[in-house]
């Protein structure tokens, strides 16, 4: 009988009828192979930030190649860890190359008054928003001036537009906030106006000092409505999706939301100068946490103007009061 049982067992294995051996997950857990797909789905779930860990600060010291920083504004990262920052008051853009451990200064565009207030990466180009010149300028990654990509005087001659921030998505679309008309402008990949949203006021779909904007992963975008103490979320086509915060929201943590950026999972980071904090929201715009004095004296933002999510879960915060760029690591659950 033992020989017959052995033969039947071999037949079951060869015929594919034998039960699959368990697959170990961790040290103590074992699940059948048929449940492996469920594990993969869980692993691919969006990660949620729960804290910021302070790493270092690029301080405004005389020995620094970027000295003096006078009016920090927009900041952004490139995928290789290069860091770019705007000094709106001094009219300069600085870049940092991690491979060379070297800071460098961008070319002047040649305009009489140059006021760079925001910066973004579009593939292999650096886009710089010149608020004074009312234009979007294009540079290479090394800081060499290329050309003027958008001229707001020619883009929409019927309005005296004053661009204050912008973002670019993977499709090449651009979205700008307009401090003069209290609007947001959405440009298609051909740099033509696709739609405008907003207008001066405090009602839904109106803005008071719009000062930050960011695309989400689905092509929708969020506008920081600074003086109304709120964020407004618009669909890919410019229709209002939701409002977060506002004067009458008793749970509102926002005082003066300004610079915005998102991570790979669509979590939103918000610089709040009056609140002296960085606020973090999930992709559905539910509030996760805000920085506070528990970070310590050297790590707590004093006047954060802009934020930028970089590679390796890094976050850069342009702190105008400290005249420093603070670097944190984003900790995820």
Report on the structure:
The protein has 333 residues and is mainly beta. Helix content is 8%, strand content 44%. It has three helices and 26 strands.
Please specify the SSE layout and strand pairing:
Layout: H1 2-14, E1 23-25, E2 29-31, H2 36-43, E3 49-58, E4 72-77, E5 83-87, E6 92-97, E7 102-105, E8 116-122, E9 125-130, E10 135-140, E11 145-151, H3 152-155, E12 163-168, E13 174-178, E14 183-187, E15 193-198, E16 210-215, E17 221-225, E18 230-234, E19 240-245, E20 260-262, E21 268-272, E22 277-281, E23 287-290, E24 304-309, E25 314-319, E26 324-332
Antiparallel strand pairs: 1-2, 3-26, 4-5, 5-6, 6-7, 8-9, 9-10, 10-11, 12-13, 13-14, 14-15, 16-17, 17-18, 18-19, 20-21, 21-22, 22-23, 24-25, 25-26
> What portion of residues is helical?
under 10%
The CATH class of the largest domain, by name, is Mainly Beta
Number of domains: 2
CATH superfamily of the largest domain: TolB, C-terminal domain
Structural class: mainly beta
The low-confidence parts are: 1-43
Euclidean distance between termini CA atoms: 55 Å
Please list the strands of the largest sheet in the order they lie side by side: 3-26-25-24
Overall residue-averaged pLDDT value: 88
Number of helices: 3
Secondary-structure element order, N to C: HEEHEEEEEEEEEHEEEEEEEEEEEEEEE
Rg, alpha carbons:
25 Å
């Amino acid at each position: 009988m033992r020989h017959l049982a052995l033969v039947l067992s071999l037949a079951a294995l060869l015929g594919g009828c034998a039960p699959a051996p368990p697959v170990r997950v961790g040290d103590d857990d074992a699940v059948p192979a048929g449940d492996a797909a469920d594990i993969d789905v869980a692993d691919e779930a969006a990660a949620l930030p729960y804290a910021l860990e302070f790493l270092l600060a690029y301080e405004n010291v005389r020995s620094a190649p970027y000295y003096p920083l006078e009016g920090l504004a927009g900041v952004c990262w490139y995928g290789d860890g290069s860091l770019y920052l705007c000094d709106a008051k001094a009219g300069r853009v600085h870049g940092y190359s991690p491979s060379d451990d070297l800071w460098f200064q961008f070319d002047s565009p040649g305009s009489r008054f140059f006021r760079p207030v925001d910066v973004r990466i579009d593939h292999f180009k650096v886009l710089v928003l010149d608020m004074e010149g009312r234009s979007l300028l294009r540079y290479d990654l090394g800081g060499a001036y290329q050309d003027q990509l958008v001229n707001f005087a020619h883009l929409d001659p019927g309005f005296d537009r004053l661009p204050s921030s912008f973002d670019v998505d993977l499709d090449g679309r651009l979205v700008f906030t307009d401090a003069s008309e209290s609007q947001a402008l959405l440009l298609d990949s051909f740099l033509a106006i696709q739609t405008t949203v907003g207008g001066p006021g405090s009602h839904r779909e109106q803005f008071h000092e719009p000062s930050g904007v960011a695309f989400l992963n689905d092509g929708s975008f969020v506008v920081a409505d600074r003086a109304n103490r709120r964020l407004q979320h618009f669909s890919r086509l410019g229709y209002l999706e939701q409002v977060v915060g506002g004067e009458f929201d008793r749970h509102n943590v926002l005082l003066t939301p300004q610079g915005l950026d998102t991570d790979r999972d669509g979590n939103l980071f918000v610089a709040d100068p009056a609140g002296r904090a960085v606020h973090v929201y999930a992709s559905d715009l539910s509030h996760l946490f805000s920085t506070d004095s528990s970070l310590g004296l050297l790590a707590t933002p004093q006047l954060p103007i802009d934020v930028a999510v970089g590679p390796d879960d890094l976050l850069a915060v342009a702190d105008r009061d400290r005249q420093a760029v603070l670097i944190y690591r984003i900790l995820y659950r």
